[in-house]
Amino acid sequence: MLDTSYRAPASAPSGPTGRVCDFVASIELNDVPQQVRTNAKHLILDGIACALVGAQLPWSRTATKAILEMEGPGNCTVIGWNQRLNPMSATILNSTFVQGFELDDIHPDAPWHANSVILPSLFAAAEHSSRGMQGPKHFDGASFLLSTMVGFEIGSRVGLALYGSEMLSRGWHSGAVFGPPAAAAAVSKLLGLSPEQIEDAFGTACTQACGLTASRFESMAKRMQHGFAARNGLFAALMSRESYTGIDKVFERPHGGFLSTFGNGSNHEEHYLPAKLTDGLGGEWKGISGMRVKPYASQISTHAPINCIEVLQQQYPERFADLESIQKITIKTAEAPYAHGGHQVRRPLNALGAQMSTQYTAAAQLLDGSVLMDQFKSANLDRDDLWHLVEKTECVWDREFDELSAWHTRVTVDFGKGYTVSHEVSGPRTYDDPLSNEGIRSKWSMLADSVLSEGRKAQIEEIVLNMEKLDDISQLIRLLETEVKNPID
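Now predict its structure.
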């Protein structure tokens, strides 16, 4: 049973915002089922792998060098760089690294990349508080794990309250919208804030929420947008700790509130669903149970087409051995994946544009049988044989698919002379057949091997998967600070 007997309650304890604040303040580790904790630790391991792999990528170097030039030294670790910055800048960069190669987690029903928001904000909060004006404070692994799970849960529930992937169709980069209150929740939990302070943190975090999906076309800023969310949530919680007030009842305000504003333009009769924030809260862990780990280095809208092509390659190996015979590839999807990845691309294309493109990733799967880091190396982005396949690929929004599922996809390959093959799925295998915890450990091992020594890799894995036993989270952070190499050099 959750204890809500606090002296500093939220302004309306029985409302959606108040109930979420009480949950954040009162939840304890023993309230969380063991399997949920185990899954969360594997998700954290995957997020760390993505950060380490992303730290020294070319676009990450550009971001890091620019911010190092703008900002003076601080007390918070920049992962994989042997550098320290102030908490806000370290959070932005570490989030950018997690998002650096499109390999991180995704929630199918409330699309956001939770690790890229929650881990950087918590790492910075822990380091800043351990050396800050408040006096030294150390956070153990159990507190860090619980705070992470709280952030995962609140961000996912916020997304569900706004109909999840519909936000993408309307042009919002959904994770950058759902992320600020999630980071505020996680940091508030780590710092032990009261419901009243948490409400202020939510109010300050939510007023900073934003993110445009047009960033996916060519900008490096796409990789940083979850970082803005992480920074803004961290900022909000740290300000609230110092009694800086935010918007009260921010989730349910009918005019200018978080849900009412971002719900504008919804296709549903009810523009937003505040009950999604609180139904089953504390008993149903919709964040962790819903999160999936990517097996491909590309944005989620490309995964179902890749899966369809994989199946066709397995079913018709002789046909697909002769790629020159392909006349046309037609990829039909529902609205959200079409809006997010179905745009026409032109040569030349940078790595980000390629990772966001259904056309490019489908061609990479056809040519290489893989969509991982190698497919986005500079030397591989401009191959003639790949672009011949891109030019034969058409993406189509089939409105009938919208009635079937948000991610429904059919790929048809025309070999000419009346011979076509097709495969149809209701959604990507990333969602329907997710990686198990063992699968996540295998992915961790593959990614870590590309940037870490065996000894350092083993230490990180041991700490994360036994996090409840960790005396001080700084022991993990120290293992992340040493400079890593660029895995695609």
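Residues 34-54 form the longest helix (21 residues).
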